[in-house]
Amino acid sequence: MLRFSLRTALLLAATCLLMTAVSTERVVTCDSNNNVQHLSCDFGVISVQAALYGRADNETCSQWITEEQLNDTQCSQNGTTDVLRRRCDGKKVCEINANVIGTSDPCFGVHKYLETIYTCFPAIHVVACERSLAHLFCDVGQVIFVLGADYGRRDQTTCSFRRPERQIQNVDCSRPTSQVADSCNGKNSCTIRANNSVFGDPCRGTYKYLEVSYVCDYPGLAPEEPVETH
User: Which end of the chain has fewer CB atoms < 10 Å from its terminal CB, N or C?
Assistant: First the structure.
């Protein structure tokens, strides 16, 4: 069975869709316990191009900040782009607290911010509520190419019909999974069940759903690399 890395899949999909308009977005979130960075795509899915946690100039997020807290403009935490890619690539919406990203302090005493540059490009987006089936399929001659899949809950509206409030309150419940790619990549069509026996239970008592983003491509164009799991 063909297996693919998520990052390579996104790059290949972007290349194959080069003739389609792709928007580039830049989002900056000042470092604070309460600030959450919000990435979203009205059409297509997120592909993170670059991310910075630290400080690259003395103007961004500078209001009410002392000069001493702005003087280091060569301050960045290693690995920030990889963290954003693992959490957000292949999704339509992604929210990140800067405190989650800032696992270390790259410049003590400097007021930092999270800056993310990402693109949105066309992809097929499928959601299957817990204990239901996700159906992935392509046109004749094409095969499935999974960009990303998550099982859990990230908002209170998806798959919420007739569900008690206690089952949709926990929105910090999301588990990236490579199982959809393992099962479906390289096939013309694929059906996978969204339940705990397949993906495990990332949050007991919460009604979950499976979210998948994929593209259809012609076989032979796909790289033979293992799926990245985190």
Answer: N
